[in-house]
Amino acid sequence: MFCDGCGAAVQPGQAFCSKCGKQIVGPVSLMQPRPGRVQEHVRLLGLLWLAFSALNTIGSVILYVVANTLLVHLRRPGLESGPPAFLTPLLSTVAILLLAKAACGFIAGWGLLQREHWARVVVLVLAFISLFTNIPFGTALGIYTMWVLLPAESEHEYEALVETRAA
């Protein structure tokens, strides 16, 4: 038998839940315990990181193509009003860094879906980076990731999910 407030196991005749303190009134329902926050959200979080990394990949490829085609053609020897010479290597470097971040996001999203031990830490690092670099979508995904995976009880619950996958 389980508490209808938090899902904790309750003994017959018990007046209050030992976990949440809710008063047990009437018959105790026979239901499965509610899954924790990590268990409910980790699959969605993995899929969101894969989708977000796909968008970063598309953006980095477009930025690299623009930097190495359009800007190069705008800076012809006969034209006086072209883009500065440092812009092409700068945008190319930013595109490569964005592509590296997208690759890390793909790996981390896959790790979350596979319940890998290392994936939680990698996703939290990427979430912190995304808070400031990809406004507004990266900020929203970073906040959601931290809400799901950052608390101490989330760490214990994620470790339990990893152990059940390994068993």
Give a quick set of tags describing it.
167 residues; mainly alpha; 5 helices
Structure characterization notes:
It is a single chain. The chain has 167 residues and is mostly helical. It has one domain. It contains five helices and no strands.
Mean pLDDT comes to: 87
Main sheet properties: none
Cα(first) to Cα(last) distance is 26 Å
What is the alpha-carbon Rg in Å?
24 Å
Order of helices and strands: HHHHH
* Global shape: elongated
> Beta fraction of the residues?
under 5%
Topology:
Blueprint: H1 37-74, H2 87-113, H3 119-133, H4 137-149, H5 152-166
Q: How would you briefly describe this protein structure?
A:
This protein is mainly α. It is built from five helices and no strands.
